[in-house]
């Protein structure tokens, strides 16, 4: 049912039946390295190009998640997926062999939240028994498209985040499991006039604050109702801005807040600047770590809020701002 201005509470909450996380070598060397399902030692994953490597991430994550759920690809009614590359080529080339009906999505780094939201709505409404929600990113393919090819060896400011090489996939259905999606809050585009493409945390934090505060207002909840409020890609700079903005609206989220971009890397040891970002950052981290905590009952309820910076090379080169968006997903333990 509709709740407040931007939220939905599911009367028949869909369950997360299986998930998979696949990451690159650098991510495997970070604090969560032991939690990921697969850590590649070759960031091209046996392919000739970075883009083909990212497609391989999605292909393998889909197959692994469906297998964990005890299903076959023929059981999946719909796929909800996207990536950061032009025309979602990592998704289309990675998943076309499976021949599952596809909704191609683009929410920048918030795509995992968008995919989970739409997948949950589809299952809860009875339009599918099983769907897969997923996404990916790759450090090298993203640098090549949005900044500079790696061969250029440009210097990165400390405010910059490091695009995660990774993919996360989730199978949703009505069959009972240890975790379910009980509600969502769909974000809207928020633009504070940021033009620095090397400071994505600052660009996305206002959207995260807007969605989180709207979610708490719509559901009549407080930050303490959650074991964790988890943003996707803000890093250390964005986290500080987010907490300040939320406090201005009357919500102190600092005690329960964490960020996938902060958790996935050791910034000082790994030289990743402000933290991690990219579609694969939140998708892989949720699957590998936070979802397991929910499934084991260590967390009873979390709010997952991946964040996206809505820019392109065209908009940036034409001097336009970097708007942000964030989508919130409530994930609860189910006994």
CATH first level of the largest domain:
Alpha Beta
Percent helix among the residues? 25-40%
Q: Architecture of the largest domain, CATH level 2?
A: 3-Layer(aba) Sandwich
How many strand units? 17
Strand content: 15-25%
CATH topology (fold) name of the largest domain: Peroxisomal Thiolase, Chain A, domain 1
Structure summarized in a few sentences:
By secondary structure, the protein is α/β, with parallel strands linked by helices.
What this model shows, in words?
This protein has 11 helices and 17 strands. By secondary structure, it is α/β, with parallel strands linked by helices. It folds into 2 domains: 160 residues, Stage V sporulation protein AD (Peroxisomal Thiolase, Chain A, domain 1), CATH 3.40.47.40; 155 residues, 3-Layer(aba) Sandwich (Peroxisomal Thiolase, Chain A, domain 1). The strands form 4 sheets. A 7-stranded mixed beta sheet has the order 1-2-10-17-14-11-12, sandwiched between helices. Strands 4-3-9-7-5-6 form a 6-stranded mixed beta sheet, with helices on both faces. α2 crosses α3. It is globular. It starts with a strand and ends with a strand.
């Amino acid at each position: 049912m509709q709740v407040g201005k931007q939220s939905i509470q599911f009367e028949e909450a869909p369950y997360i039946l299986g998930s998979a996380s696949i990451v690159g070598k650098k991510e495997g060397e970070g604090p969560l390295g032991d939690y990921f399902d697969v850590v590649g030692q070759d960031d091209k994953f046996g392919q000739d190009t970075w883009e083909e490597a990212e497609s391989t991430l999605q292909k393998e994550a889909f197959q692994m998640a469906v297998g964990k759920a005890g299903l076959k690809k023929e059981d999946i009614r719909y796929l909800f997926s996207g990536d950061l590359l032009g025309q979602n080529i990592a998704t289309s080339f990675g998943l076309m062999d499976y021949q599952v009906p596809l909704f191609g999505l683009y929410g920048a780094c918030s795509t995992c939240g968008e995919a989970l939201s739409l997948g949950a709505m589809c299952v809860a409404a009875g339009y599918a028994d099983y769907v897969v929600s997923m996404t990916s990113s790759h450090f090298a393919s993203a640098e090549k498209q949005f900044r500079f090819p790696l061969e250029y060896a440009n210097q990165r400011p400390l405010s910059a985040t490091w695009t995660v090489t990774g993919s996360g996939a989730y199978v949703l259905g009505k069959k009972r499991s240890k975790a379910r999606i009980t509600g969502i809050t769909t974000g809207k585009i928020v633009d504070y006039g940021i033009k620095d493409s090397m400071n994505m945390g600052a660009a996305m934090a206002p959207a995260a604050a807007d969605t989180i505060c709207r979610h708490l207002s719509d559901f009549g909840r407080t930050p303490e109702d959650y074991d964790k409020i988890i943003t996707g890609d803000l890093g250390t700079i964005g986290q500080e801005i987010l907490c300040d903005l939320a406090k201005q609206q009357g919500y102190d989220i600092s005690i329960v807040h964490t960020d996938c971009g902060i958790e996935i890397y050791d910034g000082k040891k790994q030289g990743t600047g402000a933290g991690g970002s990219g579609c694969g950052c939140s998708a892989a981290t949720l699957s590998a770590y936070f979802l397991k905590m929910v499934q084991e009952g260590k967390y009873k309820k979390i709010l997952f809020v991946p964040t996206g910076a809505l820019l392109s090379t065209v908009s940036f080169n034409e001097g336009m701002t970097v708007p942000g968006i964030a989508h919130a997903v409530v994930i609860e333990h189910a006994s």
